[in-house]
Amino acid sequence: xxxxxxxxxxxxxxxxxxxxxxxxxxxxxxxxxxxxxxxxxxxxxxxxxxxxxxxxxxxxxxxxxxxxxxxxxxxxxxxxxxxxxxxxxxxxxxxxxxxxxxxxxxxxxxxxxxxxxxxxxxxxxxxxxxxxxxxxxxxxxxxxxxxxxxxxxxxxxxxxxxxxxxxxxxxxxxxxxxxxxxxxxxxxxxxxxxxxxxxxxxxxxxxxxxxxxxxxxxxxxxxxxxxxxxxxxxxxxxxxxx
Length: 242
Prior knowledge:
This protein is α/β, with parallel strands linked by helices. It has helices at about 1-15, 30-45, 70-80, 90-100, 105-120, 135-150, 175-185, 200-215, 220-230, and strands at about 20-25, 50-60, 85-90, 125-130, 155-160, 165-170. It contains 9 helices and 6 strands.
């Protein structure tokens, strides 16, 4: 837990993710990363020098037309003294039934982002925290490079002017294994994904590619992050405290 808190705080401080009085919506899918993020921010809130509130928000895709069971996440939120809301959606119906998307991830991500932004505003939040970690950043950079010829990634902090919302990613200094180990040690609840596209996405292929490359090029993920910081790619090199 100490590692989770220290690396999350390092990212928050470096990129000035949290300001006094923030009300932060935490996107909680129920997966290990988002649950680790919820727990980390709840614990950090108790001693961080800038006061902030957090609100857990889960978008229920309603796979198969049925409500998802997020009761364990709700229970954890109560234990952490975190306001928590489940937002029912028709994402599964639109993407897999109505449109029968062969490559559903892009449309799903776009619709999911829009719904999360609107729900965050509904509950009076000015920022949204997402559970992307170091592995996600390295994979995103590689996907953009290999598929689009672009040297770019998501930013640790980004501003959505249309919604007047900031997106923050406090776990970007943590490896996926760090969140996975923390969730196991702390015995935090995880809701298994029912998405038909789970584990067969382009991101999964990229994850496996990086893993294979690291046999010959050790610490490749960390080197990618270092290169983005050195070159200030997608604002990864900005944010140093004054």
